[in-house]
Design a protein that fits this description.
Length: about 110
């Protein structure tokens, strides 16, 4: 299990033991984290699972793929650390990953 920390917009921290290979979005939904709508179910066909990767983790997590970048055009308040949580797959190297949820989804 890999530790995933998701911080809701109101500051509530959710510390989740995530299975490697699962996505940040799957873990957020499974643990009832508010602010992740995930309307497309993880198909990278919407922007309702938009998150901000903590700045200390952005290089390790990496940049979005072109298809993800296209979907981020529809997200609210996109920042340099923006990602779609359905496209971030957990792995052992991400132990302690911190993800922040925006004020609202698009």
């Amino acid at each position: 299990m890999t530790k995933l920390i998701i911080v809701a917009f109101d500051g509530t921290r959710f510390e989740i033991d995530a299975d490697n290979g699962s996505t940040v979005m799957e873990n957020a939904v499974r643990n009832s984290v508010p602010g992740i709508d995930a309307e497309c179910g993880g198909a990278c066909a919407c922007a309702t699972c938009h998150v901000y990767v903590d700045e200390e983790w952005t290089e390790k997590v990496g940049a979005p793929a072109p298809m993800e970048e296209d979907m981020l055009d529809f997200a609210f308040d996109v920042r340099p650390t923006s990602r779609l949580s359905c496209q971030i797959k957990m792995k052992a190297d991400f132990d302690g990953l911190i993800i922040n949820i925006p004020e609202r989804q698009a």
